[in-house]
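Entry 14. Structure prediction run on the chain below.
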Amino acid sequence: MTTTRLIAVVTLLAAAGCGDDAAGRRAVPGDDGAAIVVEVLNASGQDGAARAGTRLLRRAGIDVVYFGNADRLLDSTRIIVRRGDRRGAERVRAILQTGRIDEEPDSGRLLDASVFLGADFTPPSLRDFHP
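Output returned:
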């Protein structure tokens, strides 16, 4: 195969893989305004809750910078505003479909909110998420 023909084939294959598939797009933090930066902590005692909550929020365009276990268990989910106003926390609550919003400003955390997933959080099946 000549070099010119090889370049043409590679270019054609590359162009075919660059389709505009809106259905496969994921939300990107900050695309629709300021990014909401949160941490997600499992306070439910359910294995994998923080990971499932993180994936759910990231899929919706929330910037989750840390997830892990909380130091205590909670019956209900709490979303704590750390900086800014409540709008980011309200968006997080809408995505999770649960949670009480409280305000405890703490500019040292460099977060908009801390999310404590309580026993009321029902994580979607992990099979719904792809790495």
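Helices lie at 3-16, 49-59, 87-96.
Filed with the rest of this week's runs.
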